[in-house]
Specification:
Layout lengths: L3 H53 L6 E9 L6 E9 L4 E8 L4 E10 L2 E6 L4 E3 L3 E5 L5 E5 L11 E8 L3 E10 L27 E2 L5 E2 L1
Parallel strand pairs: 1-10
Antiparallel strand pairs: 1-2, 2-7, 2-8, 3-6, 3-9, 4-5, 4-8, 9-10, 11-12
Length: 214
């Protein structure tokens, strides 16, 4: 009679029980991994939704610029003109820079008696709420000074950065056009600049599309 058979049966039963336990543990581990993956997916989806919502709620600048052009010149001073439209609260054009000029100022033309003169606007140009302000010959303008090339040719492009108190920096490109007008003598300029031929005064006006009208 073989007395080893019961021992073998018991050993086999024990090994089977251990195998079942290991399989159960492995299945339990998979469930945990699946739960973690589901959580990560939910978090990513939530973040993406937030980003999309944030993009949709971004507010466009209330300042729009149109009709940008600059006066052709054969000396070291010129000017740029444009229409500035504000659909928001009051703002202020506080400064400007240009790629063709190391010195840029925001100017106005004032008349005293029979004399008109240009001067820098202290503190910048106010842009009223829900209004448009036109920069044009004989009025407000962006003065381009100390031009290194001492000229601006018709058809040339001038890159200008306008800095507003609230709206921040806005980049525009001005096409150089031939603007008609009268000359100004050197005595007609106040402030730090030197008056030269017709950079701020003249009969030309800029339309909303930037075309010089004589």
């Amino acid at each position: 009679m073989n007395f080893r058979t019961p021992r073998r049966v018991a050993l086999l039963l024990a090994m089977t029980a251990v195998s079942v336990s290991l399989v159960a543990a492995a299945c339990g581990g998979d469930d945990d991994d699946d739960d973690a993956a589901d959580t990560a997916t939910a978090t990513t989806t939530s973040t993406a939704a937030t980003t999309t919502t944030g993009t949709a709620t971004q507010v466009a600048s209330p300042i729009t610029i149109s009709g940008v052009w600059a006066r052709a010149t054969t000396n070291d001073v010129s000017a740029a003109y444009m229409m500035i439209k504000n659909t928001g609260v009051q703002d202020r054009l506080v400064s400007a820079t240009a790629d063709v000029s190391p010195k840029v100022q925001i100017h106005e033309v004032i008349t005293e008696g029979n004399t008109s003169k240009m001067q820098e606007i202290p503190g910048g140009l106010v842009i009223p709420a829900n209004a448009s302000v036109e920069l044009k010959p004989g009025g407000y303008h962006i003065m381009l000074m100390d031009l290194p090339t001492k000229k601006l040719d018709v058809g040339q492009k001038v890159e200008i950065d306008l800095v507003f108190e609230k709206a921040g920096k806005i980049h525009v490109t001005a096409e150089v056009k031939q603007g008609g007008g009268m000359d100004m003598g050197s005595g007609g300029m106040s402030g730090t600049g030197t008056a030269t031929s017709g950079h701020g005064m003249g009969t030309a006006t800029a339309s909303a599309t930037g075309t010089a009208m004589r």
